[in-house]
Specification:
This protein is mostly beta strands. It contains no helices and 10 strands.
Length: 114
Amino acid sequence: QVQLVESGGGLVQPGGSLRVSCAASGSISRFYVMGWYRQTPGKQRELVAQITNGGSTYYADFVKGRFTISRDNAENTVSLQMNSLKPEDTAVYYCNTIPATPNWGKGTLVTVSS
């Protein structure tokens, strides 16, 4: 099973930018769709964005126009560029396939606060 390791989270002020990345232990090219999810305490994990092998993307309405997902099958990485961050974007961000495998990583915490 492929292992997923997220990184790049941190503290950022509202309106700022952050890029989170996900490194896979094996090839991601066999997964047609990869995605980023996020979760806050007491809430269900939600899909933020997804990308196909062909580069087609989907974004949840709450991040559309602010976030950009990308993938590099040669490097086995998936990234999420987050701009114009809002306090409500504060969450632990995870990457996984779509549909998600049970093999979740530890995620990376993004905190948007002044």
